Amino acid sequence: MPDAAGATTSPSRRLHGKVAVVTGSSGGIGQAIATAFAHEGAAVVVNSREASRAEEAASNLMAEGFSAFGFAADIRDPVQARSLASAAVERFGQLDLWVNNAGINLIKPALDLEPEEWADVIATNLSGCFYGAQAAARLMVPHGGGVIIQIGSIFGELGLPRRAPYTTAKHGLIGLTKVLAGEWARQNVRVVGLDIGYVQAGLGLKGQQPGGAFTREDIERRTPMGRFATPGEIARVAVFVASDDASYITGSHITVDGGWVSYGGW
């Protein structure tokens, strides 16, 4: 079982010797993934747009004896995405794993969306994932391969009112994952997506905010398993995908949602 940070209590060291970058990992799901990777033996680059947050989260890992450091970068900027990837190599000598986790949401009727609101969500949740994946792959290919994980959403498979830019970006992420996986498979770079449901952290909690049209109780009732996921449950799937146990998986999205997509009712 995972601890509060999302790590397993008896790690198998499946990522020993690997170097990982997890975007948006100073809190929530990203932090759980970074922590789980560290417990499995990886050196981790913790990322946030705010240097203080990245450094604090990395310091917490280092205090437990893990190899980590914080690096501030905005993945909406391809130059900063490349700097983030390069920082991993400069500090740890290589880059093996990259998780595109950073994301934002916006709950608003489509008729009321401003152009800059649309552009901001698309830039973060879709363009940023391309810039990050491209920056990572440019270093992974010469090194002999690697794994890129895209943190998607059940709303990449479904639609929901008031979430036009978020849903559009997550649908696009599925297509992007397939294209990149096909292009880079012969270079031993795997690209895999996780389409996650409601999680007891980050955007999963914010989905209940005013304007979201439903409450925590609504979400639990709508989810066949009757509850939110924990960040640790998502992190354990990410560890599997990043490890050699998933060596023949690329170009697909694994749905981790407690049965949400399988159930068509409300």
Explain this structure to me?
The protein is of the alpha/beta class. It has a 7-stranded parallel β-sheet with strand order 3-2-1-4-5-6-7, sandwiched between helices. It has helices spanning 28-39, 51-63, 78-92, 115-143, 164-184, 202-206, 216-222, 231-242; strands spanning 19-22, 43-48, 68-72, 97-100, 146-153, 189-196, 253-256. The longest helix has 29 residues, at 115-143. Helix 1 crosses helix 8 (231-242) and helix 3 packs parallel to helix 4 (115-143). The chain has one domain: NAD(P)-binding Rossmann-like Domain (Rossmann fold). The model is unreliable at 1-8 (pLDDT under 50). The protein is globular.
Provide a brief overview of the structure.
This protein is of the alpha/beta class and 266 residues long.
List the helices and strands and how they pair.
Blueprint: E1 19-22, H1 28-39, E2 43-48, H2 51-63, E3 68-72, H3 78-92, E4 97-100, H4 115-143, E5 146-153, H5 164-184, E6 189-196, H6 202-206, H7 216-222, H8 231-242, E7 253-256
Parallel strand pairs: 1-2, 1-4, 2-3, 4-5, 5-6, 6-7
